[in-house]
Amino acid sequence: MNRISLQIRWRSRGAGRMIRSAGFTLIELMIVITIIFILLGMAAARYDRSVHHAREAALKTDLQVMRQAIDNYTLDKEAAPQSLEDLTSAQTPYLREVPVDPMTQQKDWHLEFGDTVMSPDQSTSGIVDVHSNSSGTGSNGTPYNTW
């Protein structure tokens, strides 16, 4: 069993009387506080890293959902959407709302327009893909705007 002991110090208090004092020295307190700050720093770094990974996962999911909605809209309407708002304002909405880009914290998606035809009856061109507008680089080394 571990025993915790306090160091007892004797100090003189005038006229030959001795008093007992128990406590920690200043250096002991500084060491404990330093260890606590080191542990807090490590925890903060791990927290930032986990938030970054969560944002990347949200970006991948948002892009996948929007691309699927674009494809479904194009196949159903036989015309590609002209904006992301078309996906939310359709009679049967393909998205509840346009998601916020987790990297830029805005609804500023980079839209790619093209003449890709998904069905023989498709009459117009429009949005064929969507990307993040962020200039940052992901944890896998590729820029977010190429995902």
Q: Your description of this structure?
A:
This protein has helices spanning 26-77, 85-89; strands at 8-12, 18-22, 110-114, 126-131. With 147 residues, it is an alpha+beta fold. It has one domain. It has a two-stranded antiparallel ribbon with strand order 1-2. Strand 1 (8-12) and strand 2 (18-22) form a beta hairpin.
Q: Which terms summarize this structure?
A:
single chain, 147 residues, alpha+beta, two-stranded antiparallel ribbon, 2 helices, 39% helix
Rg on CA atoms, Å: 31 Å
Write down the overall mean pLDDT.
86
Uncertain regions spanning at least 5 consecutive residues: none
Tally of structural domains? 1
* Order of helix and strand elements from N to C terminus: EEHHEE
Q: How does the helix and strand content classify structurally? A: alpha+beta
**Tally of strands:** 4
| Count, helices | 2
Global morphology: rod-shaped
How much of the residues is beta strand, in percent? 5-15%
> How far is the first residue's CA from the last residue's CA?
57 Å
